[in-house]
Design goal:
By secondary structure, the chain is an alpha+beta fold. The protein folds into 2 domains: about 35 residues; about 60 residues, Ribosomal Protein L24e, Chain: T, CATH 2.30.170. Helices cover about 30% and strands about 30% of the residues. The chain is built from 2 helices and 4 strands, in the order H-E-E-E-E-H. The strands form 2 sheets. It has a two-stranded antiparallel sheet. A hairpin with a 5-residue loop joins strand 1 and strand 2. The longest helix is centred in the first third of the chain and has 23 residues. It is rod-shaped, with a radius of gyration of 19 Å. The N terminus is likely disordered.
């Protein structure tokens, strides 16, 4: 019983730190690590689901948004942004 409690104590801090990092990693683009597929305008990011076969074997599948790196005008200066195609189509981004 004591070994199980020790294992939980080792696992829980890692999980809590990971959740805290994911929540704050987009506050400062230079300070935090940016995710590969996330729109900087609307926040659309990859979604995970379980793919179930005919024999009911389950495997995880990731759906990635259509992200484009474009040069856009931000506060009067050109800057490279990662933007999804929907934001580009709807005109939420002014290209430089």
């Amino acid at each position: 019983m004591k070994t199980i409690l020790i294992l939980y104590k080792k696992v829980l801090p890692k999980h809590n730190n990971r959740a805290r990092i994911e929540k704050n990693d987009f506050d400062s683009p230079k300070g935090g690590a940016l995710k590969m597929a996330k729109c900087e305008i609307c926040g659309k990011e990859q979604v995970f689901e379980m793919q179930v076969s005919h024999s009911h074997r389950r495997s995880s599948k990731a759906w990635h948004p259509n992200i484009r790196t474009v040069k856009a005008v931000v506060n009067g200066t050109p800057k490279k942004l990662k933007v999804c195609s929907r934001c580009l189509r709807s005109g939420l981004v002014e290209r430089a």
